Amino acid sequence: MSAPVTQRVAVLDVLRGFALFGILLANIWFFAQLDAVPRTESWHAVHLAILLVVDAKFYTLFAFLFGYGFGLQLTRLESVAPLRRRYTALLVIGLLHGCLLYDGDVLVSYAITGFLLLTVRRASDARALRLALFGYLLGTGLLLLITGLADPDDRADVMTSVQAMNASVGSAIGERTVSYLTEVVAGLVTGYPFIFLSLFLAGMVAARRKVLETELPAALLRRVALAGLGIGLPLVLALSWFWSDGELDGSVPAQATAPLITAGYVALLLLAWRTGAGRRALSYLAPMGRLSLTNYLTQSLICAFLFTAYGFRLGGNVQPTEAMGIACGIFGAQLVLSNLYLRWFRIGPVEWVLRSITYWRVQPFRRAGVTTG
User: Fold this and answer.
1) Tens digits of per-residue pLDDT, 259-310?
2) Which SS3 state, helix, strand or coil, does residue 366 take?
3) Residue-wise pLDDT tens digits, 169-193
4) Which element (helix H / strand E) includes 335?
5) Which are the contacts of 295, defined by CB distance < 8 A and separation ≥ 6?
6) Are 199 and 191 in contact (CB under 8 A)?
7) CB-based contacts of 45: which residues, under 8 Å, 6+ apart?
8) Which pTM does this prediction carry?
9) Angle of CA points 310, 311, 317, to nearest 5°
10) Hey, where are the domains in the chain?
11) 18-30: per-residue pLDDT in tens?
């Protein structure tokens, strides 16, 4: 079975590329083991910025876009068998990623939730949105309950993790595998499957209504941006302060307010996309989005090499400002390389594998007319 020939939604790739930047900023905090370094004023400043504008927002956006892509695929496929193969392959890739590179992997959660999404794919828009709202409230409530009962992170445990990650390759893999499998099991009971499913459903409904293919009224987008950021940012600040007893921390407030802030980001980007200068600038993100899975995994590979015994062992030895600078450097390099790569190739290497498994036939890889010399 060959893949259906379709025209890509350019702004969808732009949003994926934007999401990848935020995901890298969030993930590098854990790769660099920044909870193990001395908490200076700059540490607290960067931590606050990540809490306010990054935490949970970009995974929320990426999950919504996953659902949007699912909705588009349903209109192109005659059966869901290709999607079952796709999610099975994604599950395997995610397990390898989680055990070998990053114990904060989301691909396994996406794959499992993707199978759940298949069971409700025929729900009407109204029912899907009701399920999405219920799922998000339920998931956030469970996260609130479980997190409230859990013990706060022990600095000694963090330092033990740093030592294991920096000791040897075998030690790093062992530490990461145990941590990842623990996270997978914990994730099944902390509400994240409900949160992911709700975001997938919202994305599916948005795809049915062609939200990203339709030019929404500028006044509506401005109101969404103002409400999302004007309410969301102060709310996450206030809730985080209350939740952590003045320490400005907490995954629950970040997750609870993520849809508001994420909607504000998307509205601003869609407004910028309508201007000539904005479209030209944002278009550079589109290749990042087209290669989103390859770039996501490459970010983990580079970070694992930089911060663990795979390479330079920088984990626990850099400050947050340095880690954020490294993240910007990685993303900048990926931005340039992604734009160059797509001059010669149709699709990223990991996307090619996933797509070939999905359609159970080797898919075209190199652009027509491009030869090696």
Assistant:
1) 999 999 999 999 999 999 999 999 999 999 999 999 999 999 999 999 999 9
2) strand
3) 999 999 999 999 988 887 777 788 8
4) helix 320-341
5) 20, 288, 334, 338, 348
6) no
7) none
8) 0.94
9) 110
10) 10-233+261-359
11) 999 999 999 999 9
What DSSP state is assigned to residue 35?
G
For the cut 90, the answer to whether the pLDDT of residue 247 exceeds it is: no
CA distance 289 to 14: 6
Separation CA 119–CA 347 (nearest Å): 29
Residue type present at position 138: L
Per residue in 327-341, pLDDT (tens digit) is 999 999 999 999 999
Residues constituting the chain: 373
Residue 148 tokens read as 């409230």
Q: What's the rounded Cα separation, in Å, for the pair 209 and 200? A: 14
φ, ψ for residue 243, nearest 5 deg: -65, -40
Contact 353, 89 (CB under 8 A): yes
Q: Output the CA angle 14-19-22, nearest 5 degrees.
A: 135
- Distance in angstroms (rounded) separating the CA atoms of residues 343 and 102: 30
Q: Smallest Cα–Cα separation from 190: which of 244, 109, 258? A: 109
Placement of tokens 């920096």 in the chain: 166
Within 244-317, residue ranges assigned H as helices are 251-273, 276-282, 286-290, 292-307
The per-residue pLDDT for 46 is: 95
